[in-house]
What does this fold into?
Amino acid sequence: MNPPRRALIINADDLGYDPAVTRGILRAMQEGIVSSATLMVNTPYSGTAAREARGLSLGLHFNLSQGLPVWAAFPSRFLRNGAFSEPLAQHLTPDVVEAEALAQLERLDALLGRPATHVDVHKRLHRHPGVLEGLARAARAALLPVRSMDADMRRALRALGVPTNDHFIGGAGAEAYWTLERLEQHLATLPEEGVTELMCHPGHTPEVVKSGYARQREVELATFLHPRARMALTRLGLKPTDFRVLTGAG
It folds into this structure.
């Protein structure tokens, strides 16, 4: 199946990161315009998030930067005090990444009772070649798309036989990325062809986990719930979809 001439995926990262973040993401999907989310499967809140999100379009938010590995044989030399460490994760070998990705995908299947729609990566660690290669191997075996954030990553994934989005918009920093004004501006200038992923981080301020992106999530949540956001999509004749548009699955 060929993807449509133009499609938009609005994906919320970090489902399962923190209970308050999860509640906000679910609101953004159920009441707002967010059409997809990615679930972290190795946190204390993953199981509850998966139960509360049943029936929604969910991929894997592949996590190598915090928490415990899912793969039982994960090498201890890449861990700090038994847990993931973002600085160490940058040096993972493709074989280790592949095994952990397959283990996390298997856990997601068990939590949701169905496969992921796609995979993206917490803290964008697939910018590192070893992580990208290992993840691509796992995604290819599972027949799943992977998020690409730039042209180089897009070319690398496609060379490895992995479907990916044609365009990418999104970010996170000291200020909330998705204000209503910025969303309206980007929607008005979407590429005329291809699949665009709009990455976002809506949510309520984390109540358990310490995060540098905290109150910013409340701003994003208000953006994706605002009636003007839906009106902007209506003017474009766009209904946001999920990554299955790239594979014809579901």
